[in-house]
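Sample log: DNA topoisomerase.
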Amino acid sequence: MSIVVLTEKSSQIDPYAKALGTPKKKQGSVWVHSALLNADVQFVAASGHLFKLDGPEDYNDAWRDRSNYEQLPMVPQKFKARIKDARARASFNRIKQAITAADEVILATDPDQQGEVIGREILQRIPGGMEKCQRRLLNSSLTAKGALRSFENLVPMAKQEHLGAAGFLQNRLNWLIGMNLSRVGGIQLKKRGYYFPVAAGTVKTPTLALVVANDQEIKHFKEAPYWQIELTDQANQQRFKAQPSRHFSIEDEAKQALAQVTDTLTIKSVDQVEQHRLPPKLFNLTALQGYAAKKWGYSGTEVLETMEHLYKDLAITSYPRTESTVIEDAEFDYLKANFNDYAATLNLKMAMQVPDARPEFVKTTTDGHPALIPTDKVADLSQLTERERRCYGAVVKRTLLMFAGDCVLDKTVVKGTLGTEQIYEATGQQFKDLGWTEFDVVKTENRELPSYQQGQQVKIETSLVEGKTKVPQRITEGMLFSKLFPKYNLGTPATRAGIVSELIEKNHYIEVKGKRRELYPTSEGINMVAFWQGTLLTDLKLAKSWQDIFDKVIQGNMQPDRYQEQMVEALTDIVADYRTKKPDLPIAPKPHTSYEFKPLTPAVKCPKCHRGELGLLVATNAKNNQFYACSQKKCHFSLPNKYSGIALTSELVRQLATKKQTDWLPEVKSSQGKVYRNQVAFILAEKLKLQWTFKQTAKKTERTD
Ligand SMILES: [Zn+2]
């Protein structure tokens, strides 16, 4: 009997093989004889998605024309996918050969939506593939012990049918929305003189809408004064605040209210409760992205890339694209065993206070990955870059806090009235056990209260305090990850960072400013949201309701085809609306600059593509706007016509293109006024970047000066 285990990526082979027995290499594959499965087991791996959906032009020649509104919406009768590239083809052929020769297949891709798709799209294309595969491994554990338990509890493939169908559906929806609405926007905006690239998506556009709305709120904010009544206990200067707080926006109203209150506060209740605060939850990707953005100003993509590296290449942290904040017993056991090593590597003097698994952190789950935690391989921090060290340190420390005690405090709330309905309140707190807060940056100040008794009459002073309304906080990248994405159910941990970086770097709809990574919409971003106003792309409630229905598909309570039909209907309505709809766009189009290309003579070959020729691009309707470029439109090679105040003549460009360096320049003046004669040249450095270079001898004389 021979069984093939198909994993999502090659890094899963090693722990899975070790879970089943002693791995051996045979003809480039890993094999194990498994007593549990009573078979010789061969491991093969995909490398994520091996297939991608065809583009519009592959379905229909007419769909090639991006400027034809009449053919929208484009809805393929049946979606087709093709192999992604040569590497994917090689992977597929290897998998196909193994599966064809095997008696049975166990699907062991990641236990999530896209994991189902990755496995099923391969199996469906291998004759007999689906029939041979009746059992599914759902494993989220990092240890051989945990993986073995998952192998002991294989589930029928049919049980995962709905999740797989939802994954395939999600990919088709992204295609339908993305392809069609990008064209709707592109065509209609071009007619109105806008030439920026249009991109639309069910997560991307709502995210942009949040950033634009926040920007509008800040721009239109007007500071306004307000008044509050404040009470102070005369005997001991203890203050009482109205609860719920009451703000008067008109001073006279505040004064009238103040005139009605008496100078005696009657204490209605004194309550003291002991509070236990648990250590913070373990990190999932989104929470770590929020934490790192706030603390160090890292982008979501930077954090994701770092964690991918720590996971894939160094194997010191768990699978990064996780939504979970809990782990399983097997992980808890090795984390506990390694506690001292983790603490030592972080140089943290910490003893284990709670050795038991608490249900808030440790659960038995079969869906998805564990929270972000270290693996049992303890890292050598000196081998890590600063960013890796910080992210790794944050994950390890958060994990260690799980073994710390609760923070315990007594909280006292004193409530009183002044004869009106309004309640006034004073609160105090007394920490009894700092617990985990001793190792984390958390405020733990005691606030002492004077002792009050129920029914006590307290002489008070009343005063009117003026405050000013505060401008709303600008959304930062960290806030998107820690608050807004979860709040509006937008995207998944696997996709969020990619969407944010596309909005910033690819579409240029959002700009990032400052170390806090504050988000500012560009004029294109503002226009984009105005353009889609009133559709499911910008209405967050509507977007959420679509997501809620999608959840029914995942649970198997709705046919994917029916959902797709409804989405196509909505899409068709949008296409029909926008045929004539002309939404108000707040920002006028930029004047469209046209350029004339003047090739250099004699001809100079482009140093980048080696196909085109270099020439000067001169703007026909803007003054002093010219630069060098390649005649091949898609090449994008360019050089300025001036660099640090020195004119780049066509002769210098010719020298750069042919030798990557110009002759030594007769005379160059530095910004400090120093004159260099025959000591400086332009070079095309790495990635053909224009830079200065100094003659080596010149540098030496400079030092001896
Ligand atoms: Zn070129």
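Observation: The chain has five domains: 2-49+84-153, 169-219+474-580, 225-278+407-468, 285-401, 595-704.
Observation: Residues 606, 608-609, 612, 630, 632, 635, 637 surround zinc ion (CB under 6 Å).
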